[in-house]
Amino acid sequence: MTTSNALHPDDATLARAWTVLESVPDPEIPVVSIRELGILRDVRRADDGALEIVITPTYSGCPAMSQIAEDVAHALDDADLKPYRIATVLAPAWTTDWMTTEAREKLRAYGIAPPTGNCGSPAPMQEKVMRFVPRALPAPACPRCGSAHTERLAQFGSTACKALYRCLDCREPFDYFKPY
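RESULT FIELD:
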């Protein structure tokens, strides 16, 4: 059983851990941190005093999770924030709604179209009902020229969480971070 980080008397250590982990980049998209992407779900104190770091993959088969856990451990070790445990939690499932506004802008500047709209997910750490009904979404705008005149080339881009698109105006291909 864990205690809420808001109720723990060692808030300075928890705040420091959050700050340290803010600098851990996503290994596949290094311009955004795991916190900005919503992968870093919680930093809390366990009953035994250890820090518990909760991470959630962008999808259950994400191959970067072991690297993310290793990077988190390295950052905590460098900051001398021990003892700690890293827990990978699959439920509730990660959603692009957990991305920060800053992450979306950084993705766009990096050449990846951020997800459009929102998935209507409840607040983080609540259950989410998954519906497997395809819905029509407008094509994403090109992150380079801003044109909405784009087409999907492939359902999967450089990673499974992205699709490959091409701008029909500037003719440049780009990844689109799929909303889910």
